[in-house]
């Protein structure tokens, strides 16, 4: 992403707000991965279900654990996991799709048939199937989501690569005798990566929601580890007597999805041919 695109993204109101919220959440997650005000996984039953206070801004859960500390500690799992999954499907899809589109022939046929098989089921259904084989767990959830989503990005990358081959500047570079690898790295891959990256950014909010949803169902992070969806699942049992426990994880998920959507929409606007 070049500097001019970053400047246009910052001037875009949605992009600016999305970036500010996203940077705050990333800072929150980074700090929470190394430090929290209280031990997030150590129970203290004497302080169970305490209402919000100066010592516990978001109260305590049924085991007496500080909810603010658990939100902090779970942030790197919720946000980091979504970034890891999208980074993996972006890289796999970009490599597979570009290779298929530029190579053609048998390589293209084999890779795209594999992608077609992976796309025969909806992504969430395939993720449930993979989790059924591997069993619940955070690492298994990440693997399942990568398997469920990579084929769509590969298809998109192939389509964009085929289109890029026919662009005038690529044809001119080929006629000038520039080596094929330089054409791919300098003229085709950057544009394809940018467009696929825009799509991945738009999908970030949905990925955070999917990870939280699977953890809410008990298929992701396992107790006592903290993750926003798992915290929602734990808190819902005490909604009638401690409704404040739901506010923090729900608010964290909402802000992260909002930030991703604002950034994705702004990036789509500033990276479009009309804005470029």
Query: CATH fold name, please?
Result: MetI-like fold
**Oligomerization status of the protein chains:** single chain
Going by helix content, strand content and strand pairing, the class is: mainly alpha
Which homologous superfamily in CATH is the superfamily?
Answer: MetI-like
Based on Cα principal axes, name the global outline.
Answer: elongated
Residues in helices, as a percent range? over 70%
What is the radius of gyration computed over CA atoms, rounded to a whole number of angstroms?
22 Å
SSE series: HHHHHHHHHH
Q: How much beta, percentage-wise?
A: under 5%
Q: So what's the CATH class?
A: Mainly Alpha
End-to-end gap: 12 Å
CATH architecture identity: Orthogonal Bundle
Describe this structure in words.
The radius of gyration is 22 Å and the shape is elongated. The longest helix is centred in the first third of the chain and has 37 residues. With 276 residues, the protein is mostly helical. Helix 2 packs across helix 3 and helix 5 packs across helix 6. 73% of the residues lie in helices and 0% in strands.
